[in-house]
Fold:
Amino acid sequence: MIEINNVSKWYGPVQVLTDCSVQISKGDVVVVCGPSGSGKSTLIKAVNGLEPIQKGTITVDGVPVNDPRTNLPKLRSRVGMVFQHFELFPHLSVTENLTIAQIKVLGRSQDEAQARGLKMLDRVGLMAHKDKFPGQLSGGQQQRVAIARALSMDPIVMLFDEPTSALDPEMVGEVLDVMVKLAGEGMTMMVVTHEMGFARKVANRVIFIDVGGRILEDCGKEEFFGHPENRQARTKDFLNKIL
Ligand code: ADP
Ligand code: MG
Structure:
């Protein structure tokens, strides 16, 4: 589903991704962790072409992201992305937030978009809030709307970039619950998070990236958590700090 092959990227003279390779198959839930500034956001944004890369290749469902002939808006419409900050449109109701891209990007009718959007809103448990504005919702609820909005586009894969790190602690659980459910339903997911409880529960792989965008670990969850003695010193050090 996602193939990242030998990807490197620089900002000026500073290398932020170093020869990264990651393969994500249909139905995989891959958790990416690593210290601040290690290139996690850069890598996940590169997957849907929001960040150009200088070396290597990325394909999503066989489509080469960095080929100038690729229709990026079309590709992005099939890749759901949820960021740290929810980025809902503040002047639009929840329902309008859910339908606008379906209508403008996918060309769906108002009725069709609304039916799909409300179905997804129900899935994240927020049907009762369909006519509210984002400012009337808690951070956790806004992030669940953002997830419902991404799902309304019928994505083939969902990318999450620290979806709970801007939330008050009491709201983290409700967002993770939605993500756990999504994983259980077979959604292909690449998730940047430091929530190791989530990783233990649903990840099939855990990747650790170190500063400079170097992938130091890419292994199954059982191996990652079950055999700490096999982890690299940098990974152990990082896990000791966050666990
Ligand atoms: P992470 O998400 O792991 O915290 P990022 O991918 O945001 O890391 O950033 C990786 C590195 O790239 C950091 O050193 C950051 O300072 C640098 N960086 C990110 N965006 C830019 C930019 N637009 N220009 C220059 N450097 C950047
Ligand atoms: Mg980041």
Summary: The pocket of magnesium ion (ligand 2) is lined by residues 40-41, 161-162 (CB under 6 Å). Residues 162 and 193 are 5 Å apart (CA to CA).
